[in-house]
Amino acid sequence: MAQSPAHGSDHHDHHAAGHHDPQDLKLLGFWIFLVTDVIMFATLFATFIVLRGGTDGNVTGAELLEMNGIIISTFLLLTSSFTSGVAVLAMHQNKIKQMIIWLVITGLLGAGFLYLEVNEFLHLIHEGATLQTSAYWSAFFTLVGTHGVHVTVGLFWMIAIIIQIVRRGLTDDTKGKVTVFSLYWHFLDAVWIFLLSIVYLMEVM
Amino acid sequence: MADHNNAHNSHGGERHEHGSLKSYIIGYIISIVLTIIPLVVVLNDMMGRTATIAVIMVTATLQFLVQLIFFMHVRDGEQPRWNLITLIFGVLILLTVVVGSIWIMGNNSIGMKM
Fold first, then answer.
1. Which of A61, A180, A189, B26 has the most CB atoms lying inside 10 A of its own CB?
2. In chain B, count of helices (H) and strands (E)?
């Protein structure tokens, strides 16, 4: 269609493009990916909830989980979700420098979150709670770890996007990538809310 | 091309799909409040077990909605809202998997001794 020289089809293409903006389609495609990710986390949450009693006589979460670090990580991730939104706002005003600064702040907050999570895992392993200790800890590390892997992937993805924007500037294409990334980052914060609620708060209450 | 861009921009403006700094700040503040409420309730042992679980789940769900509306702009976009329809489908599967697992495994635990 696009290669057809006919005027009629040219008009048609332009018309169609107005209704099916490729960036809109990419955004919808990413929504569908996020929903599949929701389903994956649903299975991990279900596994954790079902197995949470299965400590096999070993240490329980209530004995080992320390809320101080978790509270700090929660606010780090919540704030980074906010700053990634501010980055998108700056992008729509074509303030490329501001946008990169907000993205870097988002990344630093995300890195702080990961640092605390790795520290927490090391502390747990040191206290004798590993992936192999009991059904409870297997489910715990798989669920919390999967979220941590998502954050790690997000960090590298964001660095790649920043490098691309520095090289190519803000185009429809790179703008779409930043929009999709911020959607992903908000999603990770939403998943963390339920991790905090179901894994941590319900365990220490 | 310039025409197309203009049309696109004005179109985007009508949809308010980019949100505003104000809406992000409101969403951020509500999220912080909704995070602090369950923390205070749990860490001070303010309520009974059932009430605490209810507070945790209600504040978490509300905060999820805040993220969707203020940050992810799920209400915006062209009709039909395929993203919203996809999301509702996802939540349906999520509830089926989670509630179904709790229900079935709750019955199974008789005789499983965990």
1. A189
2. 4, 0
Instruction: Delineate the domains of chain A, giving CATH numbers in brackets.
Output: 22-204 (1.20.120.80)
Give the side-chain half-sphere CA count within 13 A for A71: 14
Length of chain A: 205
B114 shares contact with chain A (CB less than 8 Å):
yes
Residue A197 has pLDDT above 60, yes or no: yes
Tokens of B81: 């809202």
Q: Which residues of B touch A196 (CB under 8 A)?
A: 35, 60
Q: Which residue of A has its CA nearest to B44?
A: A205
- pLDDT at position B19 is 73
DSSP one-letter code for B13: H
Q: ipTM surpassing 0.95, yes or no? A: no
Q: CB-based contacts of A60: which residues, under 8 Å, 6+ apart?
A: A136, A203
Classify B84 as helix, strand or coil. Answer: helix
From the list B43, B56, B67, the residue facing A190 with the nearest CB is B67
